[in-house]
Design brief:
about 210 residues, alpha+beta, four-stranded antiparallel beta sheet, elongated, transmembrane, cell membrane, Type II secretion system protein H, T2SS_GspH, transmembrane helix
Length: about 210
Amino acid sequence: MPIKHLFPESSYKPSSISINNRKWLTLNGGVTLVELLVVIAIFSIAYTMVGPNVRYFMAKNHLSATINYRSGMMQKSRLFAIEHATTVLICPSVDLSICNKDWSQHLIAFVDTNANGARDNKEAIIYSVQALDKSIMTKGPKSQVRFYETGISASPASFIYCIKLSNEDYLISGLYLSLQGRLRMSKDLNFDGVHEDNQGRNLSCQF
């Protein structure tokens, strides 16, 4: 009895498989080494041109988000003082307990019931924000921020925030607290690329 093949003889052509596979790879996503190097070169050029701008906008968004977060905490603390007819203190703290003068640390807000300018064990924290990451430098007032029941501040205060972009280039923003308890962000009013303080002087990160 003759042996029957699984495939018809006309369709079974082993010698043509490798050629067809090569064509399939070329037409369906296969690339040569030269093509790959060209693509890598294009991406390298694009990154060189766009990379600095991307880093700038990422740093700008990071700085704005940080300042907005801290500003929001201060605004809520002021409203708490008004709504509860009390005095609220805001200060930096490493351990969320003892106040210090390093405004890059955690910020805590609490009701200073005995008016001693420090947080005692029985004085609960009403609001807090986390410490700044190492990419942000800051300078703040030498004393705590204090809001009275009327919403006014014990004294005006300024906060400077900086992110280093290169050896001599910084991204700078300021946050200002008035005696009325109002907060505002610094602006680049003369469009020279640097924000100004309340007296119209360019902000500096040399502190």
